[in-house]
Amino acid sequence: MAYEYEEQEEKFIPMQKGSKAFRRLVKDIFSMKRDSTILVIAVLTTAIAATLYPLALAFAINSVIAGNLANLYFYAAIFFMLYIVQFFSNRERTISSTILAQSVIKSLRERAFENLQYVPVTFFGRVKTGYLISRITNDGETLSEFLTFQLPQVISGIATVIVSISIMFHYDFNLTLYALIVIPVLMGFTISLQSKVRRNYLRTRRAIAAITGNLSENINAIRTIKSFNVEEKMEQRFDGLNTTNFKANMKATLLASFYGSIIRIIEAVGIAIVLIAGAFQLKAGVTSVGILVAFVFYVQEFFEPVVQLSQLYNSYQSSMVGVARIYGIIDFPKQSATENAESSAKFHDRIEFRDVSFSYGEDDALSGINITIRKGEKIGIVGHTGAGKTTLSNLIMKFYSPTDGEILLDGKSLSQVNTGEYRKLIAPVLQEPFMFKGSVYDNVLFSNPGATREQIDALVGRFSLGEIFRNLPEGLRTNIGEMGRNLSEGQRQAISILRAFIRDPEILILDEPTSQIDPYSEKLIIESLSDFLKDKTLVLITHRFSMAALVDKIIVLNEGTVVEEGEFQDLLNSDGVFHHLYTIQYGNSGDS
Amino acid sequence: MVDLSDETKGLGKIFAVFGPLAFGLRYLRERKWVLAIVIVSSVIATLFRLLVPIFIGDAVTSVEKVQFSNVEYYSILIFVVSSVSGGVQFIVNYGSQYISQTYAYNLRKDVFSHLVRKQFGFFEEQTSGDLLSRSTMDIEASRNFILNTASQLIPTLFLIIFAFVFLFTINPYFAGIFTIAVPILIFIGIIFQRKQRTHWRRIRTYYGQMNEQLQENIVGNRVVRGFSAEEQERKKFSGTTGSYYDEYIIVAKLRGKYNNLMPLVVSAAATGILLYGGYTDVISASVVGPLVSAVNIFNLISFPVSFLGRLIVFSENARAGISRIQTVLDPVQDENLESGDQQRLRGNLKFHDVDFKRGDTEILKNISFEVKAGEFVGLTGRTAAGKSTLVNLIPRFYDADSGTITIGATDIRKVSLAMLRRSVAFVPQEINLISGTIKENISFGSSNDGLETIRWAAGIARISDFIESLPNSYETMVGERGITLSGGQRQRVAIARALLTRPEILILDDATSSVDPETELEILREIRKDLSGTTVITVTHRESALRFSDRVFSLNDGVLTEGEFREKEPVASGDFLKGENMEEP
Q1: Least confident piece of the model among A61-70, A304-313, A552-561, B395-404
Q2: Structural domain of residue B514, as residue ranges?
Q3: pLDDT-based confidence at A590, cuts 50/70/90?
Q4: Out of A170, B28, B141, B391, which could bridge B321 as a Cys pair, Cβ 3.0 to 4.6 Å?
Q5: Looking at B333, B357, B376, which one is the last position of a domain?
């Protein structure tokens, strides 16, 4: 139960394995040649300086033992110089690692966002909004810590280990072998935990995504929650997810902490071995005190990155799970390959539905639809709720592709037409008028950024919409809040209408465009529409017969099929679905 | 409340770093003992870790003095001490994570509980994407600080103190050299902290903006596609990620400079000791063991010191996050949902001289009317005339600026919100289904009802036939990734949801706009029949629905008038289009 949705989501958006995601990430990083070169140089410089100062210290101490003050000063100066070099190289490292980390994160987010614009519309029916947001923002963030602080440490760690070992071998081959005894133990230990660690982190990423998803849903449904007074119930639900998140994190921590402690103990064993072995070497006269001191340093120096690397290992796993989740979005297949199709779309003659059926997964929402929309024709679509009217318009918009049959634009299958170019011919007024944050003007200009405010004002005047916006404190400059929450539904519809009209499109698709607008304002809109629609093609979905004046032909849908088709008056006179719908709205309520 | 806008002077500034910690303690009330254990353990672990260089020094001295049996002794000691420190370190790591996760858990819970209690006005000012980032990443930013503070701050400070003590025992002059470094470190820290502040605020804000744009883009994906505005949207998003990036780079440059200065200061002190100690050793011909220990101690604290610098970074990030969380925690806009033990509200609904303003605009002026219990009333009027606002006042989603609203004899402001909203069911224009089954959605407001009752409500809302035609019937998933319901179907589920609570007053705020008129009328008829005692107020433009009502009110320019609906004399904005259509050939 707990992760039912999450598992489905992971199946729907496949995830690469951690190591594969890592290689891809590394490739992304090193494609930024300049900064990655600076980073590598800076890291190596730091690492080399770090491996050299124990040596400087060793020589300084040997100088003390030898009573040579001049040499002491000399080596002490070198000792400090190395730190100064480290200051500068660390500084470059900090800056270049942030540039790399943030560039990678930025590019991942942008690529994910870009792909979201082109995935099939059905994608959004399968994945929850909050979860998607969590992938792009929260999961992206897990990389920040890893790439900024830890990747450079990995590079320097590896460099330090190599340099330390080389120097150690140079000075004392046998002693070095003793120092390395613990390495296989360490590696075996790490590998044995790998899959468990990854699973733990996957669980934490899911848990935070579930929290984000739940929050997003609750914030969006806040009105419903308040209406039904179920705040406490929602709190309990949230608490469940919050607890799951807590537990998932504690579980991951338990293993990580255990691992960290064992590593420390292994390190101590390593040092002890070196000391004992070193003492015997010294006894045998094959090494000096200074060298032994340096060795103890090197073993620590060598273990520090190893310990760090092992701690990083947790953060590495956590980030790789995160990045794999973003790659999942970036790699999600785009809606058909029509972007390669002909680059321009023109509408000369007709749009034709040929035996079109469509299903959202269960039963057919539409079946066996055959209709023709000629250029310049005005078509009305009516029918009961759930008859498939909106689905039909969604197919014309190419939001979905038919499950069966074909839609043809001037005889050419719509699947062969460039989607973006095709949609430029059309302007829709969707059933749910979606609003962006910003002013009324911003929202209208959204569909046609080239238009001017004067043009919008003119359009408002032409369709007599001024009255509808009259109560806005700053007129059309008023900020309408997120999703237009500060507006009434009717006002949102009016904006949605303006947004479509400002495009001056060839084809207009209006899905119940005036359902929330009062009849008087509606009448004014309709009056101006007939002129506006001249030479345009119209597909109008409506329950309101007041708009029927605009159309040449009416198509009546019932349970996903076309049941009647014809002119307004003819349909009214025949005793069919249309006649029935009409009498209900305009006859007496008691009419049969 | 913790003051995060500090403009404290001098040393106080460095303590501001711990602002988020003081804030965090509020969420750790019952877990302070864990914190105490973590702190004690971290001190022990540190102490033991510090013994390692001491023993190494001793071991080296033994080697020098050719006392090889001592070497073995020290080696074993080093192993034991490291093991203890490793074991105790486990408690520190696990315990500090426990503290930080407990903090995040409690804070998140608190944030959520404030969030669902906020008035509607709050959600008109805030965006859901931004609220999302306040409740997730801003909490995470502060959690990260708590984690690092609990596990590392105290050990780091102790390490520095112990280092001082050990240095002192080795040679008081060494300790003296060390003392000079401390004020320099603090000074660098203060400057570092101050310079980052505004940038972290911006980073957290841009992060919120990123969430906000994603939310809009995802929810509005059809509009974006419908108008081929993909490029435009990408540019907007890039703009935000770009600003976010820029701020991060500025912080990185500051960090590059100041944070790395800190270990440099430490190493300068180490060099000082090397020179001074080396010089005196040469002069006095003493053993080098103590000097090795001393320099080694510096080597050991160079990392913790640079960690202190990072802690300043975490702290600033946390402070910026916490100040954003405070917006949600601030109880000013919270509703009081405590439920008293009163009866549900019954009786006539009465508005008396009600005014309502939005900013400077008067939406409702002197509204007075009475609806009798069990009456069926229609409310109509021009778009944006204030109809929704008027009905929103009844469950107190907004409060009237003046005048009173009573149900029965009770002023709705005198009863608990919980009781009021249990008496009034409100079906809004915009329908929100929760992800879950249809059954869960219908029983959303009254989860104790069985399937029979749910069917009854669905039947009235004329949606039961459709639901039962689905393969999984009432168990069908709807909501964000459920099956695609049409606008009218969703509205009917919402009506069923409201009916199930068997309200005293049912408000349908244009709740059937996407339902065809025939079905709408059937629903209204059933409601009147099956919920005969319920007062119904339906906001609508539809003639058929108005005709069905007992009485019709019309709201225009914020003024309410009552009219009886007659075919030839429609109320104010009534439907006069019928005639026109009839004339149509």
Answers
A1: A304-313
A2: 349-583
A3: very low
A4: B141
A5: B333
Q: How confident is the model at residue A175 (pLDDT cuts 50, 70, 90)?
A: confident
Residue of B nearest to A267 (CA): B82
DSSP letter for A372, please. Answer: E
The tens digit of pLDDT for each residue in B435-455 reads 788 998 898 887 777 888 999
| Cβ-Cβ contacts under 8 Å, A566 against chain B | none
Residues B357 and B475 in one domain: yes
Q: pTM of the full predicted structure?
A: 0.84
Neighbours of A311 (CB within 10 A): 17
Give the H or E element holding residue B503. none
Predicted confidence band at B481 (pLDDT cuts at 50, 70, 90)? low
pLDDT digits (tens, 9 = 90+) for B157-176: 877 787 788 888 888 888 88
Same-domain check for residues A393 and A306? no
Mean pLDDT of B416-433: 85
Q: Are residues B291 and B364 in the same domain?
A: no
C-alpha distance from A18 to closest chain B C-alpha (Å): 24
User: B296-321 in b/e burial notation, b at 16+ Cβ within 10 A?
Assistant: bbbbbbbebbbbbbebbbbbbbbbbb
Q: What is the pLDDT of residues A34-60, one digit of tens each?
A: 998 999 999 888 878 877 877 888 888
Task: Count structural domains, chain A.
Answer: 2
Q: What is the rounded average pLDDT of the residues B229-256?
A: 92
Among A residues 557-586, those touching chain B with beta carbons less than 8 Å apart: 568-569, 580-581, 584-586
Of the partner residues B98, B337, B383, the one whose CB lies closest to the CB of residue A491: B383
> Higher-confidence residue: B4 or B533?
B533
Which residue, among B180, B190, B183, B156, has the nearest Cα to B268 in the 3D structure?
B180
Contact of A353 with A405, CB cutoff 8 Å = yes
- The residue range of the domain holding A573 is 375-403+415-586
CATH number at residue B80: 1.20.1560.10
C-alpha B448/C-alpha A237 separation (Å) is 16
In the numeric block, which tokens belong to residue A581?
């719908």
Which pLDDT value is given to residue A104? 92
The single-letter code of the amino acid at B342 is: Q
The answer to whether residue A348 sits within a structural domain is no
Hey, CA dihedral for A286, A289, A290, A295, is it positive or negative? positive
Closest chain B residue to A469, measured at CA: B384
Q: Do A516 and B383 touch (CB under 8 A)?
A: yes
A266 and A380 fall within a common domain: no
d(CA B539, CA B520): 13
**Is B421 among the domain residues?**
yes
CATH (domain of A158):
1.20.1560.10
Rg of chain A taking only CA atoms, in angstroms: 35
**Nearest chain B Cα distance for residue A61, angstroms:** 7
- DSSP conformation class of A395: H
Q: Give the separation between CA A469 and CA B540, rounded to whole angstroms.
A: 19
Q: What is the mean pLDDT of residues B444-470?
A: 88
Total domains, chain B: 2
